Structure formats: structure tokens, C-alpha cells
Amino acid sequence: MAKRSVQQFSPDVLSRICDHCDRSTLVQLARTCRAFSIPSFRRIWQTLDGFAPLFETLPEDALHYYTESLRSWTRVTPMPLSLNLTVLDINRELTATDLLRFRIYAPLVRHICWKPSFKPKTVSPHAWHVLDRANPGPLRNLRFLVYRELQVPDPTRSSPFHSLLGPNLIALRVSLTRAPPNSYRASASEGVDPTLIDFLVALPRTCPFLRILEVSVSPPMSRAQRALADAVCLLPHLTTFSASGIPLLPRAFCHLSTLPDLKTASWEDYYTGAGPFTPHHVRPFPSLETLAISANTVERALALLAVASPPRLVHLTLTLRPAPDPAQFASLAHALASIPFRPTLELLHIKFRSRHAPKPEPIPPSAFSPLFSLSRLRDIRIDGHCFVALNDHALAEMARAWPQLRVAHLYEDHSWTAPDAPETLPTLPGLVEVSRRCPDIEQLFIMMRDVRRDDVEAVLALPPPRVVDASTLAAVSPCALASLGVGRAAVEEDDVAPLAAALSLLFRPSGR
Fold first, then answer.
1. N or C of the chain: less Cβ packing under 10 Å?
2. Whole-angstrom distance, CA of residue 285 vs CA of residue 259
3. Residue 196 above 50 pLDDT?
4. Which of the residue ranges 10-14, 175-179, 270-274, 428-432 would you say has the lowest mean pLDDT?
């Protein structure tokens, strides 16, 4: 068989070969021969880990590097994390000749996705301003950008990355973290980042066809809410919108409610005025399927849910501070039970965040049972400093109300000890209805009473479960439960083996 040279392959074949190679292999291919160099370089430059490779196309005599120690502050914890950053800087003004290689590689870039690294490399704000003065033009073929930046307290040192955004950008995720000088709360509302304002103001003009916009600022910056509202109102093609750290003004909320293709939305405490909206101020979100709301109180969340009434909502996430008492949770459950998207809701996630909360009060079945009207629910999670205290009757009612249930997480605080009163928590026989009426259940986390020998014997005395499919009248095997959480329920050592036999009777082995 005659040997064929690589030169004889068509460019399409070589390009397809490069499509199946990782980055290190592409670098080796680019050095192998001239035939592979062009498709390999195109593939390498399609996806970058940051903007530094583009700056490194500038002449070496114009660049210099230095190391900067920076403290990163997160919203999860105010403790600082020291980072040693390799910073790229430009030591002189750039000419048109200096930008020749930059303009060769810039059109190849399609995706820029920031990835965490143990040796992070970043570009100094000074280098960004020098490049901006040289006017290199936007990255016209850039379509996806994930940009994260750790900033020092001085807002004048922010990077004007938005000068490289082009008209073909359709997905933009930006996360800006500023290290406060004294504490996390110190700069939560102080000052304003001019670069962030310029970025938001220019966004509709530079990226008119943007579909995905996610902006996160930490600590929060309320003074940017006007610029964010202006940008949102001029972006008619959004399908995904998320704002964290910048309050959403009412007019931006009204505009989002009219977008025909908006499917995912997330914002924090949308209204900061004297009172809530009334329902006639906005129209329903026609295509919204996923909604995440973070509010300071249950009342604010309920006010927003009363205004936003998407008819096709599938996934709802509520983040509330602090954890509510049973009466507040009951009002929340009643409101969720009467929302217009009740027939379509399948996933409900309620998070309660509280740094210094007292011992949580159990949520009784009477406060939780209104949620049983969500007939299509498949996934329910109650996270945070609270728990749902069901009993056997409420657990059976839950199984009858949610036959398609797959995941039920009804507690998270493992440090709390369940009460001894047997009527407050379900027993082992209470799982029978769940195993027979919820054949798709995979994860079940509920506070249970201590396991007793008579409970185990009651389950073992039951006939083998025989679930019948109503459509085919065929027998269905018990559900394959992968995870079962029971809180702090105790079991005697002599009852471990009988308990395992009882559980295997209710739930078949899942193999996971």
C-alpha cells in the first residue's frame, strides 16, 4: 500500500483531526509540520483561558511581568485568601506595528473561559488602558466570554475588558470581586466602580444580540442599579439573565417580563423602593422555565411571586434570610400553592441563610402540607437552618400527592437532635407508602424517630410490595432508593441486620 503524505489530505480532514485533540496535542501537532500548523493554531486560539495570551502577542520589549499578592474576599466567608498573581503589564505606548500579531490572532478567538489555577496570570489595569488607547478594535468573532476578576479596593484600577467585546457575543458571564479595605460590610455600599458602569452602559451598543447575561458583583454595589436597568431594557434577545450584587429596578423587571424568549432568570431583592409592585404593573413571563429569587424576608419573596406569574415555570429556587418560623413558612407554602404555575412546577428549592440563628423550630405538617397541591413536583429541597418534621400520616399524604417524586431533602442541619415525642416524626413503617407510591424515588432525607424492634418487625411482617403500573397492569419492582437520610435517628446494634432486611424489602438494591 502506497504511503500518503500529510500534505495530500484536504484542509477539512486536517481540521476534523484537530477537533478531536486536546490542547497539549494541538501544540505538538502545530510543531510537527506546516500542514498541521494552521488548523492546530486555529483550534488552539478558538478557546482561551483568559485574555493574557492575546496580550502576549505584543512585542516582548513592550511587556514585563511582576508578582502581586492579593487578598480575595468571598461572599461565603469574610476571611481573606492570599493569592500570588503573575501580572502582565505594558511599559510603553503601543504603535500600529506592535498590533500586527494581535490582529492576526484576535479573529480566531471564539470562546474565553476563565479557569481557576494555582498559578493565576492576569493583566494589569494599566495594560488594559494602554491597549485601549491603541484602539485594537473588538474581538468580532468572540461568542462566549466567562470573565472573573479579583480587584483591589481602589476602583480606578479596574480593567476595561469591555473594550474587546464584539457584536457577535451571545453569552457573557462576568464576576467582579473587590477586596474591601477593612471588612466585608465596609464597602458594600461605598463608592462606585466606573469601569463597571462603563461596561453596562456600552453593553447594548457593543453586543446587541446578547442572549445570556450573568453579572455578579461582590460586595454588592447598589449604585450600579440604574446602569444595569438601562442595559437590560435595551437587550431584547435575552434568554438567560442573572444579577447578583446589583439590585434590579422595577423598570428592568417590567422589561424582562415582556421578553418572549427569556427562559432563565435570577436576581436578588429586586425592589428597593417604599412598597411592592401591584400585579397590573407587569405582564407574565411567557416562556420563563427557571426562576431564582433571593430576598431578605419572606414577605419580599411573596410580593415578587405575586407580580411574576410565569405560566410555564418548571424550576423555582428561593433564597431567604433568615430562617422563618412555622407561621411564615405556612404563609409561603400557601402562596406557592396558589401560584399560576402550580400545574407545571417540577423542582422546588428553598434555601434559608442565617449566620447567627437560634435553635431552629420544626416546621409542622400543617405548615408543609399546602405544598402537596403541586401535583407535578419531582424534586423538593429545604436547605438551611431549618427542617420539616413530618409524621407517618403526613409522609403517606406526601407520597400520594407526589407520585413522580425523585428527590426529597427536608432537612440539612445535622447538628440538631430530633425530639423524643413519637408523634412528631415518622417511623420506619411510614416509609411503606413512599416505597409503593413513589417508584422513581432516588434520594430521601427526612427526620425520623429512633428505630425500634417492633417497627422493624412490622415492616418484615408485610407482604412483598407489588406495585402495578396503571397503564399496562404489569407488576413494577420496588423503587431503587440510592440515598436515605434519617437525621439523628438511632438504632440498636442488635437491630442493624433486621433493619437492613426491612429496607431491602421496601427498596430494591440500586447498585450505587
1. N
2. 7
3. yes
4. 270-274
Considering only the C-alpha atoms of the chain, give the largest distance between any 2 of them, rounded to a whole number of Å: 86
Q: Between residues 35 and 2, which one has the greater pLDDT?
A: 35
4 or 482, which is more confident?
Answer: 482
DSSP character at residue 153: S
DSSP 317: E
Query: Cα 286 to chain center, whole Å?
Result: 22
How far apart are the C-alpha atoms of 341 and 212, rounded to whole Å? 24
How confident is the model at residue 116, as a pLDDT? Answer: 54
What one-letter code names the amino acid at 144? F
- Angle of CA points 86, 90, 94, to nearest 5°: 155
C-alpha cell at position 247:
439590585
DSSP code per residue over 25-60: HHHHHHHH-HHHHHHHHHHHHHEESSSHHHHTTS-G
Instruction: Indicate if the alpha-carbon torsion angle 464, 467, 473, 476 is positive or negative.
Output: negative
Q: Alpha helices of 79-156 — where are they, by DSSP H?
A: 100-105, 125-134
First to last CA, the chain: 50
Checking DSSP bridges between strand 467-468 and strand 379-384, what pairing results, if any? unpaired
* Contact criterion met (CB below 8 Å) for 340 and 309: yes
Structure confidence by residue, pLDDT tens digits, 253-269: 888 988 999 999 998 86
Cell readout for 184 is 466585608
Question: CB under 8 Å to 91, separation ≥6 — which residues?
Answer: 62, 63, 64
* Residue 387 · residue 489 · CB < 8 Å: no
Give the DSSP H/E element, type plus range, for residue 435: helix 431-437
pLDDT in tens, 38-76: 677 777 788 888 898 899 999 999 999 988 776 544 444
Q: Which residue has the cell 491597549?
A: 131
3-state secondary structure (DSSP) of residue 476: strand
Distance between CA atoms of residues 301 and 261, nearest Å:
24
| Euclidean distance between CA atoms 54 and 109, whole angstroms | 9
For residue 227, count other CB atoms closer than 10 A to its CB: 20
The most confident of the ranges 117-126, 147-156, 337-346 is: 337-346
Average pLDDT over residues 439-465: 84
The answer to whether residue 271 scores a pLDDT higher than 70 is no
Identify which of 332, 277, 327 has the alpha carbon closest to the alpha carbon of residue 299: 332
Rounded CA-CA distance 404/342 in Å is 15
